[in-house]
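hey
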């Protein structure tokens, strides 16, 4: 049985990473001054950051149902028997629920995974699904496997500017003004369905240190029984300057020398909400060998 794997660009997967057959990527819509762009095709992070510096109106939306159906139909027409589709968490977007409803018309050939992930943790699920397909699992079995392990991951992120959290309604203008005066950086956590406030720190360097402490705490508690070879820790961010991205990756690597720490650039659909130069870190179990 031929099984294809698809995800959306909320995962941070880049089009150039689709080097194996059976891997597909749905571009998420990014709106700049009401003009719609397809992430990874019409717009990438440098263009988004230029728009931010010009203070243009920026937002995101879920893909139109027709775009989702066109992708699925094209995949199945390519000769694949089944499709595993992994959108971003249902707790962060309606696109997962919409996809699950659309899949009802495909008689089980399309399995929509709701494993409550986004960004680098969603990317891990995408490539894990591919490895599971290579091992002979059906689409339904892959869906069950990923959803069973959905909460074996955490993301911590702090923002350089509160502008986009304020625009998105996640904090009030009064709170944003107060935090700016005191140089307070909110540390946010994504663990499953919600984006929650985890802590606050005075300045970015203290915020970075607090996020590393949080991952160390997760390593010693939630992932205490996970060997290093089955654990992934990744640095992430929406840095304009590649040297700053490498600085952050190197700092995280130094704190976890037993692991090979990669850097993941945040996709446009997340950068729209956290702004430029946000700093993140993720910890998760490796889902599939």
């Amino acid at each position: 049985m031929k099984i294809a794997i698809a995800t959306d660009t909320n995962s941070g997967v880049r089009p150039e990473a689709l080097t194996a057959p059976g891997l597909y990527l749905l571009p998420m819509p990014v709106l700049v001054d009401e003009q719609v762009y397809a992430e990874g095709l019409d717009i990438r992070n440098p263009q988004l950051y230029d728009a931010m510096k010009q203070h243009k109106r920026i937002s995101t939306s879920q893909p139109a149902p027709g775009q989702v159906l066109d992708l699925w139909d094209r995949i199945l027409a390519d000769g694949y028997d089944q499709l595993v589709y992994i959108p971003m968490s249902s707790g962060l977007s309606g696109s997962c629920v919409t996809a699950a409803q659309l899949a009802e018309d495909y008689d089980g050939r399309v399995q929509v995974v709701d494993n409550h992930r986004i960004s680098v943790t969603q990317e891990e699920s995408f490539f894990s699904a591919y490895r599971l397909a290579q091992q002979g699992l059906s689409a339904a079995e892959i869906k069950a496997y990923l959803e069973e392990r959905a909460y074996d991951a955490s993301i911590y992120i702090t923002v350089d500017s509160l502008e986009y959290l304020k625009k998105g309604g996640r904090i009030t203008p009064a709170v944003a003004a107060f935090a700016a005066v005191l140089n307070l950086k909110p540390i946010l956590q994504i663990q499953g369905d919600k984006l929650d406030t985890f802590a606050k720190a005075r300045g970015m360097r203290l915020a970075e240190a607090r996020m590393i402490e949080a991952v160390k705490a997760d390593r010693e508690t939630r992932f205490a029984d996970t060997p290093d070879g089955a654990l992934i820790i990744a640095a992430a961010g929406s840095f304009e300057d590649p040297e700053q991205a490498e600085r952050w990756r190197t700092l995280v690597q130094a704190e976890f020398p037993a692991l090979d720490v990669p850097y993941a650039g945040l996709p446009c659909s997340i950068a729209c909400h956290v702004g430029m130069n946000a700093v993140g870190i993720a910890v998760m179990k490796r889902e599939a060998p």
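The chain has two domains: 3-26+63-148, 153-285. Residues 95 and 118 are 12 Å apart (CA to CA).
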